[in-house]
Amino acid sequence: MLTVVCFYWHDFTRGNRGYSFEHDYVRILKAMVQRNLTLPHRFVCVTDDIIDDVETLPLDYSKHIPGTVFLRLMQHKPETAEKICGGVIGRGTDGLIPSEC
Q1: Residue 50, φ and ψ in degrees, nearest 5
Q2: Are 8 and 90 a contacting pair, CB within 8 Å?
Q3: Is the CB of residue 60 less than 8 Å from the CB of residue 77?
Q4: Per-range mean pLDDT, top range of 4-8, 53-57, 72-76
Q5: Is residue 101 part of a domain?
Q6: Taking Cα atoms as reference points, which of 94, 97, 101, 90 lies closest to residue 2?
Q7: What are the tens digits of pLDDT across the range 19-28?
Q8: What integer pLDDT is reported at residue 8 of this predicted model?
Q9: In the chain, what is the greatest distance between 2 CA atoms, to the nearest angstrom?
């Protein structure tokens, strides 16, 4: 089964720089994926937060470099890959999922 993964975390070292998203962005992304992806799939958000109605996995901050997006590399760790399993599509919360043309 395909797994669609997005990442959502608070990096307090960035201050007002970069993006600042609310939980609604994750829920909207999940809805776009469900509406437009016809393959069987599961939607997972790797996060340091609790998001209602979204399956989540905990972030691993052990190798995080504050102010960067390298935290996303944790999806390649064997422990994380076991939890995600299957084929993976990684999406940012700022992406659009268009309908099929």
Answers
A1: -105, 125
A2: no
A3: yes
A4: 53-57
A5: no
A6: 90
A7: 567 889 899 9
A8: 84
A9: 42
Residue 85 backbone dihedrals phi, psi, to 5 degrees = 45, 155
Task: Give a yes or no: residue 99 inside a domain.
Answer: no
pLDDT tens, position by position, 63-90: 667 767 666 666 666 666 666 665 555 5
Residues 20 and 8: their CA atoms lie apart, in Å, by: 10
In a domain, 97, yes or no: no
Q: Tell me if the pTM is above 0.85.
A: no
Task: Give the whole-angstrom CA distance, residue 27 versus residue 18.
Answer: 20
Q: How many domains does the chain have?
A: 1
Is residue 23 in some structural domain? yes
25: containing domain: 2-91
pLDDT at 27: 94
Q: Which residues contact 46 (CB under 8 A, 6 or more apart)?
A: 5, 6, 7, 8, 9, 56, 57, 58, 59, 74, 75, 80
Mean per-residue pLDDT for 34-60? 89
Tokens of 18: 């970069």
